[in-house]
Amino acid sequence: MRVAMIGTGYVGLVSGTCFSDFGHDVTCIDKDASKIERLKKGEIPIFEPGLDELVRRNVEAGRLQFDTDLTQAVRDADVVFIAVGTPSRRGDGHADLSYVHAAAREIAAVAQGFTVVVTKSTVPVGTGSDLEHIIRDAAPEADIAVVSNPEFLREGAAIEDFKRPDRVVIGTDDPRAREVMAALYRPLSLNAAPILFTERNTAELIKYASNAFLAMKITFINEMADLCEKVGGNVQEVARGIGLDGRIGSKFLHAGPGYGGSCFPKDTLALTRTAQEAGAPIRLIETVTTVNETRKAAMGRKVLEALDCPPRGATVAVLGLTFKPNTDDMRDSPAINIVQSLLDRGVKVRAYDPVGMHEARKVLPDSVIYADGAYECAEGADCLVIITEWDAFRALDLDRLKTILKTPTVVDLRNIYPPADLASRGFKYIGVGRGSSIAV
Ligand code: UDX
């Protein structure tokens, strides 16, 4: 089948490339000419494990093309995906749909024959109907069906998630569109991935409901962690104990510094706005968004409290800056708030991240000093803070760390070390929600 993918951001590039790997003929389109030039040369503008190899393979096979102009690709396409950005609108927290609307108008102007237009971008419920109106106004003769097909890709595991999804959700009432989408995803249905056909509004809601539920799960365990610290208890064991109940499930129960990234903060906010305006507020998620924001600031205070010296002039070594491992993405990373609250109190911040430092430099204050590695970062510091659980930080040489830190204090915001390992070596170790096992 012929696919046009509009937008070569994270979602568009990964999805387009994976569709081509299934044997479809895919053109990825972006207005950013320099990005398209780079992609044509095989340079991948984002960090995603395995993506460069997959792009190269499919470009070589002639199944994956890149273009700045959508005309030809859309004209030829059976399916056109809209995978452009939907950032939070400044002021009201709603998703900004201007790029999605503009893409729909451009598609309407050039589409030929029956064309299925699919929203891959995360869009609020009702957007599919809006797009249908926009397209009808722009090109009354066009034979176009608008379908919702939300993505559930995790950064860092996006290819695996695309190829072996828990489910594929397709929202449409149009039988012809349903047939086209079923054919597009046939390679996955052979892998026994459940393909769930729903009404379009329902599909749009499923995406927001999934992200909101996951954000709620994380926030729940984070608050349990706070309680463990106050009353004594180990949040990891609580998570295991409740997660073994099949109704709860063990995933997404890792306590930490609060969720970040390009999806959860933005989507939870957008869902609460939609729900408020519809007169059916989702108070649980309103609380989740507030608690998560508060948590990031609280993590800065946690580090300050761990210091055995006055903050002004102290040096804190920060390991991990990205919102999670295996990505260079700094969007809404808890590290931003933590670093800022340390700097506000006169702390010198030295930081290291295996992949994210280039992006970090764009968003963190200039006074942050960057180190070339974990040990360089720790050298002479009054405290070491682990913010992101990169594998490279999981097996640090603790004896070496002890000798190079000025004060052997470790604040482990991801609970990647057993407290006893550090305590037996004379560290002051502070994890998250392991109140009874904090050893000094
Ligand atoms: C998320 C969804 O998982 C994905 O389905 C959706 O399409 C996009 O948003 P992503 O943002 O890439 O994906 O990251 P994810 O792995 O879900 O983690 C999100 C945040 O939650 C990270 O900051 C992570 O550190 C945090 N998290 C996750 C926890 O703090 N604890 C957990 O148990 C899980």
TrEMBL record:
Pathway(s): Nucleotide-sugar biosynthesis; UDP-alpha-D-glucuronate biosynthesis; UDP-alpha-D-glucuronate from UDP-alpha-D-glucose: step 1/1
MF-aspect GO terms: NAD binding; UDP-glucose 6-dehydrogenase activity
Catalytically driven reaction(s): UDP-alpha-D-glucose + 2 NAD(+) + H2O = UDP-alpha-D-glucuronate + 2 NADH + 3 H(+)
Active site: 263 (nucleophile)
All residue ranges annotated as the UDP-glucose/GDP-mannose dehydrogenase C-terminal domain in the record: 317-419
GO biological process, one term: polysaccharide biosynthetic process
Gene3D superfamilies, A to Z: Cytochrome c1, transmembrane anchor, C-terminal, NAD(P)-binding Rossmann-like Domain
Residues noted as binding NAD(+) in the record, renumbered to the chain: 30, 35, 86, 122, 155, 266, 331
Keywords, sorted A to Z: NAD, Oxidoreductase
Pfam families, per database record: UDPG_MGDP_dh (PF00984), UDPG_MGDP_dh_C (PF03720), UDPG_MGDP_dh_N (PF03721)
InterPro entries according to UniProt: 6-PGluconate_DH-like_C_sf (IPR008927), NAD(P)-bd_dom_sf (IPR036291), UDP-Glc/GDP-Man (IPR017476), UDP-Glc/GDP-Man_DH_C (IPR014027), UDP-Glc/GDP-Man_DH_C_sf (IPR036220), UDP-Glc/GDP-Man_DH_dimer (IPR014026), UDP-Glc/GDP-Man_DH_N (IPR001732), UDPglc_DH_bac (IPR028357)
EC number: 1.1.1.22
Amino-acid positions noted as binding substrate in the UniProt annotation, renumbered to this chain: 152-155, 207, 252-256, 260, 324
Family the UniProt entry places it in: Belongs to the UDP-glucose/GDP-mannose dehydrogenase family.
Protein name according to UniProt: UDP-glucose 6-dehydrogenase
